[in-house]
Amino acid sequence: MAKVNPNPDFFGFAELLSESERAELAEIREYLEREIKPIANEAWANAEFPAEAIEKFAKLGVAGVQYPDYGDGKPRSALFTGFLSVELNRVDPSLAVFSGVHSGLAMGSIHGGGDQEQRDRWMPDMVAMNKIGAFALTEPEGGSDVAGGMRTTARREGDEWVLDGAKRWIGNGTFADLVVVWARDEADGNVKGFVVEKGTPGFTATKIEGKIALRTVQNADIVLDGVRVPEANRLQGINSFRDTARVLAKTRGGVAWQAVGVAMRAYELAREYAVERVQFGKPIASFQMIQDLLVKMLGNVTAMFGVVVRLAQLTEQGTAGADQAALAKAFTTTRMREVVSWARELFGGNGIVLDHEIAKFFSDAEAVYSFEGSREMNTLIVGKSITGISAFA
Questions:
Q1: What pTM was estimated for this model as a whole?
Q2: Which top-rank group of organisms is this from (predicted)?
Q3: Which CATH superfamily includes the segment(s) 242-387?
């Protein structure tokens, strides 16, 4: 009998990690399977965030692994943090987004855009998950055009700033302790970042209902009505949207890794089902068309791994560009969308119920495909890079 290779990392990209990194990731996978997976599906079905998840993630200790100066002091490679995202997303994309918004977007804004005092004030509690972060950039009338069309304003009055406006699709927004809000300074027209603390008067967050993707993520509509923030809460290193874009370039690469995790799990579920599901007296994996679907899925996952692994290596070298992150995001999320579609097809009618999990990954993939810049917007970033001509309207 031929040797069976069920590993979705078919070319062994994980072998590029150090032995200690592989061991740590194995421990993380075991913990996620034991502690997070059992609560994931019910939370997704009910569109509720499981309160115990914060404590479980705190015990796992993955918040802020990118910032060893505030974590356990142990530097991790960009490749390790990428594979960590894969592990989180193959268990549950919604809870992976909760973690990513907190560690990547919110903490990344403070670590990269705050001064030393601000980092010292907020980062330790965020690493310990005593305080949960959110990132408020997108607006009701501004998604892809948020840079030029931002309507939320900031007006300085003495030692305070007054924020007015609205934000939408803000992950963790309904319960976050610290919300990084981006607003346009009325005085100079530049975008600046502000940390709004929970309980600040004039700040209201309302849960967005009726989602069909990432249902566990508590996305919020946020209204800022004369919200007063001290100058000490303005991120001192953020003086224009270019500074904001530096944060987004890093997280855009993170979404590419997220897409790998979603696609990988969809392939795993489809392969397992094909081997076990019997029709016409034999496993459906014995049919040529089913094997064709599985191989196409595996091919996509393998190509996606190749892109994100190389992006991690460039990041480690300090040479990764925003255009390369944009290409990675556009390519991997498009291939992911194909994989989850083929996987759902393979499951037939069973692919539309939560029992077999694939329905969740099929739905969640639509959100991953859309956020951190649509495929079209990322395409235009890359197009400008390769032609020298901007096609932005």
A1: 0.93
A2: Bacteria
A3: Butyryl-CoA Dehydrogenase, subunit A, domain 3 (1.20.140.10)
